Structures are given as C-alpha cells and as structure tokens.
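G., the chain you wanted modeled:
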Amino acid sequence: MAHISATVFPKSLGFRTRIEVIIPQHPDSGLTGDKVLYLLHGLSDDSTAWMRNTRIEHYAEKRGYIVIMPEVQRSFYCDMKYGSQYFTYVSEELPKLCEQLFNVTHSREKTFVAGLSMGGYGAIKCALSKPHFYSACAGFSGALDMEFRLEDAYNNGYKEVYAIMDKDERVPDHSNLFKLADKMANLPKSEQARVLVTCGEVDFLIDDNRKFNNHMKSLPIDYTYKEWEGNHDWNFWEECLPLAFDFFEKKA
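Predicted structure as tokens:
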C-alpha cells in the first residue's frame, strides 16, 4: 500500500492545496487499484482527516481502491461567488491532475465519490451533477438541505458563507441537491449515478437527511437510505465505510 501526501496548484483555485492518495500494491492478487474513490472531508477538517480517524487505508487495500482525499477548506464544495472554484476543482481539475501525476485511470463504472457532513453534501452534488463520470456516491451525515443550512448560517452570524452564496439569493439549482436529483431522474437508468445516504438517529443533521430521503423515494433512482443509532462523529463514519464499499460493488 502506497500513501502519498502531495501539494498541487489547481488553476481553478489559484493557490497550492494538499491531497492525500492511497494506492494499493498487490498485483499478484489482482487488487491493483483499478477502482477510484474520491473521499471528501467535512467542514472543520482537511485532507488528512480520513487517514487520521478511520481505517480507510485498510479498506482501500482490502478492496483494491485508489482513494483520493482533497482539501477544500470551508467552501461547501462550491464554486464560490466571492472566492475560488472548489466544485470545478474537485469534480473536473482534480481527476485530470490525478491521471497525470499518479497514472490514475477513470472508467465510469469504477469511479465513486463519498464524504461526511459538508463532504456528504459535496459527494452527492458531484454524482448528481456528473453522473456520466461517477457511477455511485455515498453521503454520510450529510448537510443535504443547502437552503436551510445557509439560512441557519446567516441567522447565526457565520458571515463566511456570504462568500459562497449571496444571502439575499436562493440557492441555485446547480447547488440544490433536490433540484439536481429531479434533473438526474429524467435520465435513463443506465446513465444515472446510484446514491447511498446514511445518518445517525441523534445526528444534528438528521432532519436534512430525512427530508432528502423522502424526496429521493419519490424518484426513479437507484437509491438506498440507512439510519441507525449514532451521532455526528467518527465512530459512526467508520461504520459507514464498509457499507459504502458494499454499495459501490453492488451490481446496478
């Protein structure tokens, strides 16, 4: 197993940023990392969070995944109104950089994205926006109701979010998961990304997840929701990882 820590200079950001990459090294077993997972961090974390707090390296080696963990600060994986283009970076420029630097090969059926909290939102946003690139996604304890999340941030004085979206405007359709799901539902089933959502029963984001679940159940999308006892913490997200890998490997 190779673990690479690197800095890159994406044009979409205009500054250097870190990425962590895990690459399996077991050619004899056939687990050579032909599957690619983009694993996204939450609001208060960075690119090292998954490595420091979970057994992701173990799962990547066991399952044969290249795992790419970018860093986006507190951007909510958005192309910011007053700031850098983080969504463009993660969903477009980062894959190209990984192809160039690490010889990563992307095939849709073996390319996945997952994340927790803010990263749960980001992962589902990536897959719903670009189902031609990702075959499946998983959002753990996701901040899925962006309209409510931004309104709550404004009301509580978190002015940093003004740089992401103007407080006097509605969340645009390209950042609204409900609207993105409606749009993807119009595609043929073979062109849709499969979606897994998980959340703990006492998580402060449970209402976001239940609201999104109710909406997704009404759409013709391959979608799974799992809720069990748990909080917004690494114990819960550790439990989510094997579920996500099982979901990714399930035949559509």
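The chain has a mean pLDDT of 93.

Shout if anything looks off.
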